[in-house]
Amino acid sequence: MKLLRLNSIPAPLLELEAYQIGEVLPGPTLIEWGEGELPPIFISVLLHGNEISGFTILKNLWRKLLTGELKSQHPLIFFIANVEAASVGLRHLPSQLDFNRVWSGGDAPEALVAQEVLDISRKRQVGWAIDIHNNTGKNPLYSCINKLEPEFWDLAHFFAPHIVYFTEPHEVLSMAFSQFCPSVTIEAGTPGQKEMIEILTDKLETLLTTGAPALSKLKARPPVFHTIGRIKVASSAQIDFNFNPRPEGDLSMRSDLVECNFQQLEPGFVLGYAKKGHLWVEGNFEQDFTNDFLEISSGEICVKKSFVPAMFTQNIPIIKSDCMGYVMESI
Ligand SMILES: [Zn+2]
């Protein structure tokens, strides 16, 4: 794996879907486009190969930039990350590391590419870094930041009304960029979700043409949620979403679980039913927070201490390999 560096936007890319990028680009590619005195804006997409909205947003911007309809005040740096995984619609290939867990160093090919991208970006004195992702489940558009500083807050709020602050996992792109510029991870709903693509295209057009003034116009900042931990499920557990007090398998969760994302859940709220165990709350450093946030008795899984969930998903492979959702508290 080698980083390809370009100084122009290959026109054939405009006609391709994310899974076809490999026909034009052999692998991870950094496109440094435009000149000028102002700090460059860095935009990354496809760190996860199946999260395709960012590439559609780039094509929207590129079309207008190439025709001159959109004039960016800032030089731009585009990073198209996992071309190989995108070609098969996977987060990453089984042989690869997760491209959003390699930004704190290491010798893996993905980590070396990340290091090169960081070195170039630092040298070019990037002004803002924007990393676009998708998720599963029903979530609003939201921004994640890794530093609680005004410039980060403003950038996050510019893109989305909901802001999440996290420090783990610390190996993500936005964390590495936060060492030298305001950075944000944007969660643009499910892959290809149209209205979010449109919103973000508009937002980026504004940022490109107005730059910092677009951010400084913001007045009140919305609350920030801090991720405390994740709701984990045993890989052997049988799960359904029938909300059945007598589960046929091991866990029977609410059928409307994904509707709870970004809603304050109060004590006593029933998330589901369990035969025994199978589900726990794991802190950022693998602490057991189950008894802090949940009351699991007589087969009922109840909220014990109020929290706000994010990324609740009903996708069983994702639940088992990652988690059912995140537990957050407002700061
Ligand atoms: Zn992602």
Question: What's the number of extended β-strand segments?
Answer: 17
Identify the CATH homologous superfamily of the largest domain: Zn peptidases
CATH architecture of the largest domain: 3-Layer(aba) Sandwich
Please state the structural category.
Answer: alpha/beta
- Uncertain segments are none
Mean residue pLDDT: 94
Specify the number of helices: 9
Shape: globular
Please specify the SSE layout and strand pairing.
Blueprint lengths: L3 E3 L22 E5 L7 E5 L7 H15 L8 E5 L2 H5 L21 H15 L4 E6 L8 E4 L4 H10 L2 E4 L7 H5 L5 E5 L6 H17 L1 H5 L7 E10 L5 E2 L10 E3 L16 E5 L4 E5 L6 H4 E4 L2 E4 L4 E3 L5 H6 L3 E6 L1
Parallel strand pairs: 1-2, 3-4, 3-5, 5-8, 6-7, 7-9, 10-11
Antiparallel strand pairs: 2-4, 6-8, 9-13, 9-17, 11-12, 12-15, 14-15, 16-17
Helix pairs in contact: 1-6
Bound molecules: zinc ion.
Zinc ion binds next to loops.
Provide key terms for this protein.
331 residues; alpha/beta; Aminopeptidase; 2 domains; 12-stranded mixed sheet; 5-stranded mixed sheet; 9 helices; binds zinc ion
Any overview of this molecule?
With 331 residues, the protein is α/β, with parallel strands linked by helices. The chain folds into two domains: 4-216, Aminopeptidase (3-Layer(aba) Sandwich); 227-330, no CATH class. 25% of the residues lie in helices and 24% in strands. Strands 1, 2, 3, 4, 5, 6, 7, 8, 9, 13, 16 and 17 form a twelve-stranded mixed β-sheet that branches. A five-stranded mixed β-sheet has the order 10-11-12-15-14. A hairpin with a 2-residue loop joins strand 14 (294-297) and strand 15 (300-303). Helix 1 (53-67) packs across helix 6 (194-210). The radius of gyration is 21 Å and the shape is globular. The structure holds zinc ion (ZN).
